[in-house]
Amino acid sequence: MKRHLLSINDLTYDDAVLILDTAAELAKISDAPVKKLPTLRGRTVVNLFFEDSTRTRISFEAAAKRLSADVINFSAKGSSLSKGESLKDTALTLQAMGADAVIIRHSASGAPARLADQQWMTGSVINAGDGTHEHPTQALLDAFTIRKHLRPENKDLTGVKVAIVGDILHSRVARSNVLLLTKLGAEITLVAPPTLLPVGVENWPAKVAFGLDAVVADSDVVMMLRIQRERMAELFFPSEREYSRQFGLNSDRLKKLKPTALVMHPGPMNRGLEISADSADSLQSVIVEQVTNGVSVRMAVLYLLLGGAPLAAVANIESNEKVGM
Amino acid sequence: MTNVMNEGDITRALRRIAHEIIERNRGSENLVVLGIPTRGAFLSARVADLISQIEGKPIPRGTLDITMFRDDLRMRAPKPLLPTEIPAGGIENTDVILVDDVFFSGRTIRAALDALGELGRPNSVQLAVLIDRGHRELPIRADFVGKNIPTSREEIVKVHLAEIDGLDEVLIEGNA
Question: What's the pTM?
Answer without folding.
Answer: 0.88
